[in-house]
Amino acid sequence: MSKITTELLLERAVPRSTRLRKIETLNLSKLQLKTGDLDPRLFSRLRHLQKLDLSDNLLDKFPNSLTLPDLRVLNCNNNKLEDVTALKQFPLLEELTYENNVYLTLNDDYKVMFLLENLRLLNGKDITKLANHVRRVNSRKLTSKVTAHWEKFFRDQLPEKHTAEQVKSIKKKFLKSVQTNVVYGPSSLSEFTRWRVKMIAEEFLSYSLGLELNSDTEPEEKMDENEEESTESPREAAEDVAQVTVTPSKRKRNHSKSGAGNKRSKSQANTEEEEEEAEDVSAEPLHFLQCHSKGNSHEDFKTQLWSCVFEPVLDSGARKDPIVSSSKTVATCGGESVCLIDCETGTVLKKYKVATEEFFSVAWTTLTMVISDSRKKAHNILAAAGRRGIVKLIHVAADFCYGEIKAHKKPIATVCFSPTQETHLFTASYDKRIALWDIGIPDCDYNFKASQLLVLEAVSIPLRIALVPTCPEQYLLAGCEGGCFAWNIKLDKGQKSRPFEAIFQFPDDESMTTSHRVDGLAFLNDDVVVSKSSKPGCIYLWSWSRSFDVKGKGCQRTVSAVILAELEWSTTDMSYLTLSTCPAKEYVFCGDEKGSVWMYNLSTYTTAWSSPKGKRSERRISPTQILKWPELRLNGEQLPEILVNNVVSDPALSYLVVLTSVNITAIWKKS
């Protein structure tokens, strides 16, 4: 049993606290803690922790998914740390001490200086100037040497039309050669130099060779239709696909409309009974994929998956590549990778990876690009962003990441494209700003020019953003750590940096409040907004047009959200389990802290809500159905409790893609 419990964390908080989410300073020193005692699921609830003391313990490394997004000060003195690279998960870290860890060297100092862009003090010393040199001058020199090594010794070895095996072979040779032959700086830093050279070389190859296509699109004959595992490298997926360790042991689903169905079923029903009941439910589990694993590890059940979005359908005949021609293809992100998955077959079609990144959000747009002979053709472009504050732009059909935009100095929480201006991209960041970019259209040589058009100033971190469907070029909504806000984004106003125009009040017991975390936000139709707050069990549906007067004057005014209904949901106080909508089918989806998906069919309510005098539904609306997470087993052992971070359906509601906290993507298919 772990030494760390909720009660211990509350007791060791400075000052003592009654809620984990309120703790800002925590002293866990001198507790004989080992790495296994740091439970990521428990630490993920410390969302506002800024100072953490882990000194005088027995830690040999850090878990990769502690999820402390606001951590600024960390003390790890007098432990047994052997590696520091996991500290990159704390991007806001400003002060770090790890003295008297005998296995750490000068090379580790340089690694943390590179990984932590906000770090000012290391072991009590101001390292600002040296860190800037490491990140800029050192990186520039090494990048130049890596590029030159490729050009001189390897570029001509790769045929213009190359196979996956040829790419795999030359990549292996290049990585080995470049780490051996590229040297820079004193010998005392040789380990750091090799580490950076490998990182730079892998990024260089991803640009030069593009994304990787899994050529083995047919599933293995011996695989059950509900069994699937994919490791990080798509080219290795075909080799490893038989090594399935994640299998659903039960199919039984609760399809009651009662909220009581949220409790996990422990039925011992036999196979015949399970299959008979499965026919009655509206969706069945199709695939369970483990395709975002760190270091190709089958044991990685800690990488958090955050965002998924279905690829838009291009006009018939616009694309010859059949594997990405329909909305059966979904992009998912989490950890250091972005995957494209065929929902029907469960095949990981393509994969993009950045070794130092943790991706939080993906978004699609369709650009009309000039190809050879001056002909124009529509292509889907994928934007991906996360912890490094950089947006990667990926031309999927060409298997090529053609560029990046250094959008923010702090992590990007979410991104979305304008539905009317295909080159307009919004990025919402931990720097409390939402930026609007024109990403431009790449030419036939992939040259492009991005420009910043607008900056929206938020008073707290924006978590979710949504453009108002009836006026997507004029108003943007954002769910933030400190409330729900609206901005005027019309570009003819001239003012490039803008404060919010309105903040929305919501019911709080018997009064109204603006101060609450809004971690779920989406439009159900042109007018109905669905938002989820930090108030347990609370999802609101409210009217945009009746809440916000577009003719109102003045900025930063407070307006009351006109509530249409409340949805009954889990009573957990766990944050960041976001919601989504399927407007065409008038559905709302939200996952919970037990791996379940709550589904709400609201088609019988929307007509009444559309009336100018439509009344609020007095009772909370129960879920139409709750899809229960099946019992998955790893080598015979049941997986730990699963959080559903996100759940998204395709426009036709044929597939549901469920992203979890344990590195598993579940795909459900409508029966």
Automatic annotation (TrEMBL):
Residues 215-231, 271-282 have a biased composition (Acidic residues). GO terms for cellular component: centrosome; chromosome, telomeric region; kinetochore; nuclear origin of replication recognition complex. Its main location: nucleus. GO terms for molecular function: chromatin binding. SUPFAM superfamilies: L domain-like, WD40 repeat-like. Residues 215-283 are annotated as: Disordered. Residues 7-200 form the Leucine-rich repeat and WD repeat-containing protein 1 LRR domain. It is found in: Chromosome, Centromere, Kinetochore; Chromosome, Telomere; Cytoplasm, Cytoskeleton, Microtubule organizing center, Centrosome; Nucleus. It comes from the Eukaryota. The keyword Nucleus applies. WD repeats lie at residues 405-439. Keywords: Centromere, Chromatin regulator, Chromosome, Cytoplasm, Cytoskeleton, DNA replication, Kinetochore, Leucine-rich repeat, Nucleus, Repeat, Telomere, WD repeat. Pfam families: LRR_LRWD1, WD_LRWD1. One of its GO terms (biological process) is chromatin organization. Belongs to the LRWD1 family. This is Leucine-rich repeat and WD repeat-containing protein 1. Residues 282-670 form the Leucine-rich repeat and WD repeat-containing protein 1 WD domain. The keyword Cytoplasm applies. It comes from Xiphorhynchus elegans.
